């Protein structure tokens, strides 16, 4: 009798544990929902307009025109303007929700190329001009444009003490992460000369992420990765099939200067 009660208690404890684990996992997984019909109609209207030089919105010192939004149409390659505006929204969301979200900063699409081609001195003040101490924020996101054909993402992950690399086509990021480690050493020396920086404890890792099945969705994958990671949603549950919905959602988010959740 006593053994039976012990088994029953154990089974209940295991059921409770599984339920708790499932609930915790569900908090970290999100479903990419389609836009409501009225909002979707607004997106389609923008995509069919021919006045491509018309300015739709200006924020973060970035002008977004009709032709920029056209790069979000299915089968198109996102341009710098769209990615920079989206990343600026992510940074702004972090600044205004520090009680709920991790602190983060996203560099512009030109940062890494400039660092790689011209060296540290040319980008030494980029973060400072934005009022950001990259040694202190939880996440620093760095969009990377490889040979002008493919977008991928590096993350200076101060929260977990890592340099992370994500590529929707499974590329290696060791060279990029080494450059960013060197950047952080020099940035720390410039901003905090009284403290000896040590980034040798930071691991350099290429992490699994959703994979694209074509040659043009890489920019969309990067935008969504940053959105997910900047909210501490460590499980990336989106996939290639979500790209049409994500593209339409980004158009709506940019034109309203507000990220959907």
Tell me what the structure shows.
- By secondary structure, the chain is of the alpha/beta class.
- The chain has one domain (28-256): Adenoviral Proteinase, Chain A (Adenoviral Proteinase, Chain).
- It contains 9 helices and 7 strands, in the order ααββααβααβββαβαα.
- The chain has a 5-stranded mixed beta sheet, with helices on both faces. A two-stranded antiparallel ribbon has the order 1-2.
- A hairpin with a 3-residue loop joins strand 4 and strand 5.
- Helix 2 crosses helix 9.
- It is globular and about 55 Å long.
- Residues 19-26 have low confidence and may be disordered.
Explain the layout of strands and helices.
Elements lengths: L1 H27 L8 H12 L6 E5 L2 E4 H5 L9 H17 L7 E3 L4 H8 L7 H4 L9 E8 L3 E8 L4 E5 L7 H18 L11 E5 L10 H12 L13 H14 L5
Helix pairs in contact: 2-9, 4-8
Tell me the count of domains: 1
Fourth-level CATH superfamily: Adenoviral Proteinase, Chain A
For the record, the CATH architecture stands as 3-Layer(aba) Sandwich
| Number of discrete helical segments | 9
Class per helix and strand makeup: alpha/beta
Which strand order spans the largest sheet, edge to edge or round the barrel? Answer: 3-4-5-6-7
| Approximate strand percentage | 5-15%
Share of helix, binned: 40-55%
Low confidence ranges: 19-26
Features of the shown structure:
five-stranded mixed beta sheet; alpha/beta; 9 helices; globular; Adenoviral Proteinase, Chain; 15% strand
